[in-house]
Amino acid sequence: MKIHDVMDNVYCIDTMVNGEKEVVASFILDFEKVAIVETGPRCVAKSILDALNEIGIKREKVRYIALTHIHLDHGGGAGTLIKELPNAVILVHPRGVKHIIDPAKLWTASQSVLGDLAEIYQPPEPVPASRVFGVDDMQKISLGNDDLVAIHTPGHASHHIVFHLRNLNMLFTGDHAGIYRNGWIAPTTPPPFYFEETLKSFEKLKSLKPRNLGFTHFGFADNELERAEKKIIEWAKIAEDVIRNGGGVEDLHAKLYEIDKDFVNILKYYKHSKIIQEAFRVGLAGLIEAVRPKVI
Question: Are the C-beta atoms of 11 and 28 separated by less than 8 Å?
């Protein structure tokens, strides 16, 4: 674990999942009521606690664990962390509540999709129902000297939320805006991916004109929503062309590598990252699945 960056009382923590740098971030919001946005998987729960110690935040001060969605790399550590944070509750999309309380089905599905990567993440621990809250679209959560607003953003998943730190005008994008590093950006679109809903969600977010974004994969950025939206539209068109020509996931990967410099640079930057490579393997399959009905 290391504190990767700090911006206006918001700490970006590199959780170092599987020893991989700059792959999965957790954000600690050091306000009157402390919030943690994203926990990473269970295997890095101790890293979040170590970060709190390093910053100097007592565990009793943490009031919220906010999850953009329930995929293991974003919320798999919630059940482990909550046991160490006596005053905290978990905030999640209403669709995700039952899977945080009883993660058995989530774990089985994750094993099926992720294979041995799921074993690296480790199975999520259950959470008492009294400590899990489903948050409505545009629901405001007071942190005392700022507000965290939950914005339902279906697309990457039906249960996806982007959290808006209102006064600082910062968005925590989860997977909605994709993977970002060094100015490069690429979509993450695992099955089932909802393309039309993704575009509607972008419109909601762009209307906020955010000052900054916090990418779970990875770190702080300026407002890159327009680029992220344009990129997913471009990738969908390329996927449609691939399908028309009888191609599949490998063909889509090859075509994107041929024409998209961001995709090439991210793949090269993360060439040793099992997590990012797997994200694209699963993601391109999801994109093919999502656009196929438009072609056939």
Answer: yes
Model confidence, pTM: 0.95
What residue ranges do the domains of the chain occupy?
2-225, 232-295
Q: How confident is the model at residue 129 (pLDDT cuts 50, 70, 90)?
A: very high
Mean pLDDT confidence for 105-114: 93
Strands 170-174 and 161-165: antiparallel
Structure tokens at 33: 């009521």
Segment 49-56 long-range contacts (CB within 8 Å, at least 24 positions apart): 49/81, 49/84, 50/1, 51/1, 51/3, 51/11, 51/13, 51/26, 52/28, 54/3, 55/3, 55/11, 55/28, 55/30
pLDDT tens digits along 141-179: 999 999 999 999 999 999 999 999 999 999 999 999 999
CB 23 within 8 A of CB 219: no
Fold of the CATH domain 2-225:
Metallo-beta-lactamase; Chain A (3.60.15)
| pLDDT tens digit sequence for 271-293 | 999 999 999 999 999 999 999 98
Percent of the chain whose pLDDT exceeds 90: 95
Instruction: Quote the pLDDT of residue 264.
Output: 97
Residue 1 has pLDDT above 70, yes or no: no
Burial class (CB in 10 A: 0-12, 13-18, 19+), 60: exposed
Q: How far apart are CA 92 and CA 152, in angstroms?
A: 10
| 253 conformational bin, left if phi > 0, alpha if psi -120 to 50, beta if neither | alpha
